[in-house]
Amino acid sequence: MAAGTSSNVHLHDIPDVILSNIFSLETETRTRNAMSLVCLKWLLLERSTRKSLTLRGNIRNLFLLPTCFRAVTHLDLSFLSPWGYPLLDSFSNPLVLAQFLRHAFPSVVSLIVYVRNPLTLHLLASQWPNLQHVKLVRWHQRWPAAPIGSDLVPLFDHCPMLSSLDVSHFYCWTEDLPPVIQAYPSIATSLSHLNILKHDSSTDGFKSHELLSITASCPNLRKLLATCIFNPRFIGFISDQTLLTLAINCPLLSLLHLADSTSMSNVRPNLIEDASISFATLGDVFSKLPQLEELVLDVCHNVKHTWPALELLNTKCPMLKSLKLGQFQGICRGIASPPDGVALCQGLESLSIKNCTDLTDKALIAISHGCHRLSKFEVLGCKQLTRKGMWEFTHNLRKTLVDVKISYYKNLNAVSSLQALEPIRDRIVKLHIDCVWASIIGEEKSLKNWSKLQYLSLWIAVGESLNPLSLSGLNDCPSLEEIQIKVQGDCRDQPKPFMDAFGLSCLTCYPNLTRMILDCSGVTGYALTAPVGHTDLSSWERFFLSGIQDSTLNELNYWTAQDVDVNQRCLFLPAAGLLAQCGRLRKLFIHGTANEHLMMFLLGNPTLRDVQLREDYYPAPDNDTITEMRVGSCCRFEDALNSSSRHVPD
Length: 650
Hints:
alpha/beta
């Protein structure tokens, strides 16, 4: 048809093949659901092209299980409630339930599931023998009397095509994995992705012999993420020989992520001890990994004079795009006219430098000249750097840099950090700074528009206020959609909060802010009766959440504060009352425990549609008789939440 002529061409006239491709390109769940409401044809097309699905709701309500997503290949069952309980134990015949899931989703090759006991995996894995990727989730302790590796045996028994295994959120012993991998050599050989990076500092890292046993059995690994022990005082620490043998065992690695178990700790480091790793061996390791694209070595112990080894990365690992170094010293001297050390890695697009005590402004500027493609940069605990050096760095990379993290910076407070980012203020999309307000009064503020900033992450000490945030120069962020706030410190050192509120009400200046992560898991206090002159965590919780009722949030992840002496993280009355007043909140995930009657307070919020209580911390309270939401409590709350008498505006 000639251009400019009128026609009665309708959207339905688009060929089905093209329309199907259009639907396949859309991945956002709510958008796809909205598309499915247009007409019956679009509904069927959306369901037939959906490849990924996360199930929520109570597993006992089988009549609500959808059977129209038969093309789904990635299925996430880890959010089903009652959360944290054995998935199939709600039924007298759990095999029937497993078969029903297989019938509803016959094409699944990727599965995420909460595995409280081996029976769950035994029944589910047998239903999908073609599984290629599996992620296991468990925050509760393993049964101490269970044989070594018994949790994983059903998976290896029933899934011969397994190529990717993720146990980063699965509470188990480090000695559980090596014997199982050795017992199934064909599966071990086919594994290309193994994630054994534990996300909690209380868990032990893999010892040297365990890591070498795993890598020797999996020679075709392309991605390996692992928590290790780098402390030379410990038995089984990672040494030069360990790293060299690992590289020989797995020469095809494109991603290598090794982190000390203390790297996940909330405690900020005291840089004293040296690791048993030399720069000469590092050079040999890099030479044996020519396909490396992403490298993380978060050692948490000093590795000195590393610039000669890092120079080899540019030639020996030409495809390297992302690099993270923790406690590497001497990464760039910055004294010679040509670049040296890490500044020679010209292909880097992401660089993270953590606790490099000898990194200077000159070295940082040299890195900005050498690594001219950087789009992401993180600097943590590098105490010699100044605002001037950081400003020069961002100025040199103003055409590419869009993601920056500045943390634990001795010479920069919040205002200075933002001033150092002035050259990329109109480009930056993601930002992290520490809320250090020292000397903020009287300083020149950068009260300007951060037009493209979509994600903001903040660290703040317990007892400090969030109110100076807008005064520091971040008051105008029209595109900000998500904020993460990490609060850390010991409430027991302070009798009570020194002000009425933490300052969440100041977030109302961000009109498009809809998602927040409020992480108070690093806050320690008294969950029960506090000593004379101190307040318990309920008062601190009121302090942290006051003002949240005025926010525009529709999704909140809230990690409660904890009492480490009794291993308790729970929701108190002030939090329940304040969260019930959040007039726009649709999704609420509480990471801790709670009493049933406090959860019932949340029903007063008319917009809430999805509420879940997750005990996702090590170890989850297996026998908590005071605060744990039990199966019956959870079911009663969900029934009330989903009751037809509650009108939830969409």
